[in-house]
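Subject: Predicted fold for Putative folate-biopterin transporter 2, 522 residues

User T.R. writes:
Posting the sequence so we have a shared reference for the thread.
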Amino acid sequence: MPSAGFSKLSKENGPTDTEQEEANQSAAITTSQISPASGLNLKLENGLLDFLFVSPVRWFRMLAEKIHWSFVVGVIVIYGASQGIGGSVFKVSSDYYWKDVQKIQPSEAQVYSGIISIPWIVKPLWGLLTDVLPVAGYKRRPYFVLAGILGVVPFLIISLCKKLHVVFALIMLTAGSAGVAIADVTIDACVAENSIMLPSLAADMQSLCGLSSSVGKLVGFSISGILIHHIGSQGVLGLLGIPAALVILVGIVMKETHTPDFAYGEVNQKLREASGKMVKTLKCRQVWRPCFYMFSSLALSLNIQEGLFYWYTDPKAGPHFSEEGVGFIFSFSAIGSLLGVLLYQNSLKDYPFRSLLFWSQLLFGFSGMLDLILVFRINLKLGIPDYFFVVIDECVSQMISRLKWMPLLVLSSKLCPSGVEGTFFALLMSIDNAGLLLSSWLGGLLMHLLNVTRTNFTNLWLSILIRNFLRILPLTLILLVPESDSNSNILPPEILNTDQHIINTETEPHNIELVSLVKYTS
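User M.O. replies:
I've generated the structure tokens; pasting them so everyone works from the same file.
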């Protein structure tokens, strides 16, 4: 605000005609000195600032207004902090934990990583509990709190116990994974239901999940190697209690309707009703066909990452990357994942599912050839250092993988019937996770059969070649995917509109489905 003296001076002694003319001439000269190139640069700078800062803020505000701010915060915490930062730090630290502390073979580590993912396969169980069995009158908030506690305790035990038996360590890591899975299925229920209620925002909600996850992974991978170098893999695993504690806070702030008079005696009946509705939906042709494709595309993409990790860090056969180097390499994979989300959100989200999945699966198979070039050390013959080539490999592979994953998530949210959105979305995700588990175990079996060990990497190239070939096979099933896009309803009307009266919680307060967060938007 101008001062009183300045205001008075302006009123009493305004500019003369001569002064005004000189000012106009000066402004004209200044304007004439601006070249077209300078104007173009100014526009580019403004456009870049708008893309990096203004547009994201406007987008977050739009989601918070149309859905609810607590939903946006919950997605950021669970996908960004818990799964993003926590998941990436867990990935690197657990690899070093199995390799340096437990000293097991890469094929064993690959199998153990599959066992740790089992809580993600039983996601329908967590979904049914959150849909059917409220605690203290709430269906969501208590399960966030439970998930946070289940995530804090096991990681603290691993960090405090110097040498755990491998079986007990596996149990603790699996329990921590269960905590993350319970939080994931609870927030996924919100995403699924709001995708049904607001189909035009379905892709935006999945982009919010993917963006939060990618940024979180970028941060997590960037700091993981440094943390492991300074406090060791066990100490880093103990730090994973921090994102788990944030999940507890989500349970405290999440907006949810309180239902104090829930009839617990009707739980069995509601379980039967929910199970019957899910079975009916799965029998629908529009549902089981894309589900079979999703499972096949994931199961046939064999996971041999543990073998590559052991080779990365081997001082003789491999490039011998340090802990910090491995962390930064994976951080570039997070950048690739983030680029995939941005590319999907800004350019590809309105394309048909079948076209997107065809090209992304094809590129996914070809991108695996970069690993073959690296293992054969062809990059060194071309004058490309290992570190630089691995960064390119991880960035490109993860970008394509994210482009493949995003339409699968949106498609899954479109297959959920009203009334059991959370449980059914969890069922679809468990099918995907079963495919990932099978790919991990088949990858471990492949490395075992080819005798890929802690020190023998002679046949690692062959396992990569077999994996790349199997990645192309799902294209033979691409016709199982619908041609519709993210703006269309896939379910037939008789399933999509079944039990629409269930959504009205004012007349039926004890139903098994999520209460839409949209109703409580202020």
